[in-house]
Design goal:
globular; 174 residues; alpha/beta
């Protein structure tokens, strides 16, 4: 089983917020998501689109790598230091999408982050997919969206953003 986060207060966001929680490993590829995210910002010229990397600040080299990937879009990116559980769970619960990435060519990986995301009852964007167990579980549980390339990721981001903008983005209720 996994923790029930219902007792932890949601930290609501006034922006369209996508969150990634925790560590990043060298095998993870954020370039597909980054291209789609930047495309969304450029299309809508929207300062209200935010991507937060919760707790990544302690991982200095990976934080620098993320900053390089999103160079020119610093106003839309937030990298926090480590947060206590109530803070990071509250921020994830207040997000509109939770970002998950595959671990390169590694198969059979079920990170703790995935179960934390499920407990937050927010839609998960899996980009890029592992074409393995995480994709299968996401598909079977209908807990989110799977993007294999930039075009798919952009389409998902745009639909979610426009639904949020229209006040129609419903939070996932598994």
């Amino acid at each position: 089983g996994f923790d029930n986060y219902q007792s932890i207060p949601t930290i609501e966001s006034t922006q369209f917020t996508i969150s990634y929680n925790g560590s990043i490993y060298p095998s993870q590829d954020f370039s597909i998501f980054a291209a789609a995210f930047i495309q969304l910002i450029e299309k809508y010229h929207e300062p209200q689109i935010k991507l937060q990397f919760l707790g990544l600040g302690f991982q200095k080299e990976m934080a620098k790598s993320i900053q390089t990937l999103f160079k020119g879009y610093e106003a839309n990116i937030e990298i926090t230091e480590r947060l206590d559980k109530a803070a990071y769970v509250g921020k994830m619960k207040g997000s509109h999408l939770l970002l998950l990435t595959a671990y390169g060519g590694l198969k059979g990986i079920l990170p703790t982050k995935f179960y934390e995301y499920l407990s937050c009852e927010r839609a998960i964007l899996f980009c890029p997919s592992d074409a393995d167990i995480l994709e299968r579980i996401l598909y079977e549980t209908k807990a989110g969206f799977i993007a294999k390339n930039t075009a798919e990721a952009f389409s998902i981001l745009e639909k979610q953003y426009l639904a949020w903008k229209a006040g129609e983005l419903a939070h996932l209720q598994p």
